Amino acid sequence: MAEPIALQFSAPKRGMPPTHFADLTREQRIDELKELGLPKFRADQIARHYYGRFEADPSTMTDLPAQARADVAKKLFPTLLTPVRVIETDEGDTTKSLWRLNDGTLLESVLMRYPGRATLCISSQAGCGMACPFCATGQGGLDRNLSTGEIVDQVRAAAGAMEAEGGRLSNIVFMGMGEPLANYKRVVSAVRQITSPAPEGFGISQRNVTVSTVGLAPAIRKLADEDMSVTLAVSLHTPDDELRDTLVPINNRFSVEEVLDAARYYADRSGRRVSIEYALIRDINDQGWRADLLGKKLHKALGPKVHVNLIPLNPTPGSKWDASPKERQDEFVRRVIAQGVTCTVRDTKGQEIAAACGQLAAEETTGETAGA
């Protein structure tokens, strides 16, 4: 078993939202409904509406007693996410949503439709405390952790949108705003609700859920001991500690070697291949020798249980960071593969709609400030 962890990060600036149905265990829901004079079977009944029909408004739950619907709404279904902006690109295949939370905090989610599947990229924190200099969210700092309900409700909203289109939400990636493993308990609770069958959850396969991290090694080991089969994605971005200390400041606490050791533990416990995320930045981390070193270290640490997901950087406005040229990207891929490690380039959907995490929220905040 992994050692217990007590990680300290930037203090959130705001409090948590009111309690939502998705924040509660089944037993807690039964207790809450009992206070309203409702029998315990109503908890599963409401859950089937929420997880099975993607309804979050009790006024539409016609099998609930009419006189109880308003009380259920007030007690268990506060409005968590209010849409601020919805932008589409890729001929409507990609939709980026900017949400306002009840305390005014902004967060983003992105729904990407592909032939035969639909992937939702969700946020786990409002902002991020990891301070990676090339990331719009990291530069904005951490507002607060999201509640379990705020995480889960992003999924419900997208699943409902897909159903209305005649499709189905099939994949979830925790690659939006925030560091998922810095909001550990709520993220794990959300994953269990996303993957449990109705009436306990949305029934999305654990194998179709990816949890991303910048490399909180103790939390990676703790996640491995949850005995889930979600995919772990590690945002490595460079194989050497000297540069990673700058690109991913948490590396000053958990070195590349510690992160890869934890990733190997996760791969062994889960039986899943680990994804290594690598944002390719011109003249910063795209050198041939770094590709060679990356391949060698990954092959040694993880063997066949690893895949490199190369990400062409989506630069933020005014940033000094830029994407590597195509020929350098192709050479990087070739050299990683030459070390015996699979490597592919991520499809870059939605670049013209400020698809990099935090860009839309930053634009909205800047616009509000300018208009104030």
Overview in brief:
InterPro entries: Aldolase_TIM (IPR013785), Elp3/MiaA/NifB-like_rSAM (IPR006638), Methyltransferase_A (IPR040072), RNA_MTrfase_RlmN (IPR027492), rRNA_lsu_MTrfase_RlmN/Cfr (IPR004383), rSAM (IPR007197), rSAM_sf (IPR058240). 36% of the residues lie in helices and 18% in strands.
Topology (elements, then pairings):
Blueprint: H1 26-35, H2 41-52, H3 69-76, E1 82-89, E2 94-100, E3 106-114, E4 117-121, E5 125-127, H4 136-140, E6 142-145, H5 148-164, E7 171-174, H6 184-195, E8 209-213, H7 217-224, E9 231-235, H8 241-247, H9 256-270, E10 274-280, H10 288-302, E11 306-312, H11 326-338, E12 342-345, H12 359-371
Parallel strand pairs: 4-7, 7-8, 8-9, 9-10, 10-11, 11-12
Antiparallel strand pairs: 1-2, 2-3, 3-4, 5-6
Helix pairs in contact: 1-2, 5-6, 7-9, 10-11
Helix content estimate: 25-40%
Helix and strand string, N-terminal first?
A: HHHEEEEEHEHEHEHEHHEHEHEH
The CATH homologous superfamily of the largest domain is called Aldolase class I
CATH topology of the largest domain: TIM Barrel
Ends distance = 52 Å
Strand order of the largest sheet: 1-2-3-4-7-8-9-10-11-12
Count up the helices: 12
Label the CATH architecture of the largest domain: Alpha-Beta Barrel
The SS-based structural class is: alpha/beta
- The dominant shape is elongated
Mean pLDDT: 90
The value of Rg in angstroms is: 21 Å
Q: Could you give the count of β-strands?
A: 12
Share in β-strands: 15-25%
Low-confidence stretches: 1-13, 352-356, 368-372
Summarize the biggest pleated sheet.
10 strands, mixed
* Count of domain modules: 2
Keywords: 4Fe-4S, Cytoplasm, Disulfide bond, Iron, Iron-sulfur, Metal-binding, Methyltransferase, rRNA processing, S-adenosyl-L-methionine, Transferase, tRNA processing
Subcellular location: Cytoplasm
EC number: 2.1.1.192
Enzyme class: transferase
